[in-house]
Amino acid sequence: MLSQDGPPVESAALTPPANRLRVLLESLALLGAPVVGFFVLRIRAMAPVELPDPSMHTIYVVDPAQMFTRYAAAFASTARMREGAQAGFLVLARLSYLAFGILPGFFVTRYVLALVAVVPAYVLLRRLYGPWAGVLAVIVILSSPVVLTAWGTDYPDCAVVSYVTGALCCLAMPSSRHKRAFLAAGGVLLCLGIFSHGMGIVLAVTTLFVYGIVCLVRSPGRFLGDVLVIGASVLVTTFLLMLASWAVLGQFNFITPTIAAARYLNRPDQIVQWHSANWRWAPYVAYLLVPPAVIVSYLVVFLRRLGRLATPQLFVGLCCAAQLAVFSYLQFGYHVQTLEMHFFSSTIYGALAVCLSICLAEMARPISSHRIWRWLPAVAVLAVPLAYEADPNVPPFGWWPTGAVLAAVPVLVALVMRLWSSRPSASSVTRVGVVAAVALAVVAMTGALLELTVAPRPTTPKLTGIALAGDPVSNYAGALGGNASQLIDWYVVSAELPGFVGDPTYKGEQLLTWTPTALGNLVEPFGIFHAGFNWLEGLPVLSPADYVKLALRRPAEVLLLNTTGAGFGAALAELEPYRPTVVRTGVLSDGTAVLHARLLVLDVYARAGTRVA
Predict the structure, then answer these.
(1) CB atoms within 10 A of CB 552
(2) Can you state the angle between helices 223-248 and 198-218, rounded to 10 degrees?
(3) Which of 446, 421, 282 is nearest to 359 (CA)?
(4) pLDDT tens, position by position, 89-98
């Protein structure tokens, strides 16, 4: 547990009953913060699905047994069962689904993940600066378009961003009491992040490395004890997670598939598909300027007293800087798409939100002793996204020149505030002047960062050395004030597909999905049964590649999908050599989403008695 070396945290002189009442009210307010933030900030309830990857995890939430029964053998050589190994996210999501159903379960999971991020952040900032700073941190996290977009799908970055944020705050917590409990909580959250996604492994190792260095320098006597506590919590969590995974997902050992997936993705053919050898795509992505802008601003705020900087602030700043450095190396010096894939880069933004919150709270120290005005930074932070929602139209731009100018704003604001507060004449400034300066600084810093985050990409010229799979464009602009009704409709319909298809009647009963080549709204339902690997494209005409896939895979079933039902008859005739039998026809609909589906059994490949119409 990192010690508090800075000025003592303010403490109110309250009687025990009054203190208990305050803690109760504060706790209730904190537990309700994600719900309040959802309505006040008009958060978009779900994020657009640019790739089928999120729905490739949805089926493990809804019906994991189907995937393990149908594809375990077929996917063994390609490590494509790795989605089912991401138990840190899937166990929570699956339990929520079993308890509440698909749509309520989705939001219960997000509520829990939001609490995992904001509760430790609130407690950390409260202990460092006061309740006003805790509220500020909650607002910063809940208004981050990157974090909100990560929470908006079933891709496991939604879990990693919360687990890493909560763990960072627990490890940084200044506490003479319950320090082992905070350490253990940090270990638990990092362990859950490790087994949620590969980026969780990178972030957990980086965070623990920085913690170890800071602990050795600042509190060497505690190093061994801290290592033992964290290590024990990781081991116990791993074992309990394996039991939970076996109980609700049907897979006890998710470690071996994770290792196999890492080896498979390290193959040259996979690297070419997913990682761009050319770095020139980066200057067209403005939100990549946010992490360095926050970290440099943080350095400027604490520049003149790094030697006597309180350990929690030092740890948070170093940790965020190290995470960005590791991600940058993996992207530009190695061959992992940590920054070009927004599903991956999103995982560092929760920790950055904590770093930004500390930076803002430090700049607001001149008004932190006033009972009323110290709440102004939190109000100012809230005002920025609300103002953006009034007219959410940011033009496309890249790094130069607009991106560079906006990225320089937080750094310049931090520098000006630092120089101004250190001048002897600053003490003669009126209280109104100080309050106005702090408010303007907070608005300028958070406003510039928000503009960078939501800016659409400008037109990108054709570049060589770009990943074959392509980098999906993030839709951060709609995270605040965006409408998700159609997204919710398609999520519900897509999640109904496993029930429509039904459980396989024998192990290895493979199913291929056949859709039009132009997917449109079918991206999410198309991904339920592992997208392209199980895809016949160009409904209702089989391509030469489709004939090869049918011969190699020998699927018992084919699922026809489109939005109109047109072409199903022609597709049935096209499959005549495989003796198709229609066993189920239906229209799945919810709100504006309408999905026509037809399930066929290919008698030439299916075992006798597979299904009956």
Answers:
(1) 9
(2) 160
(3) 446
(4) 999 999 999 9
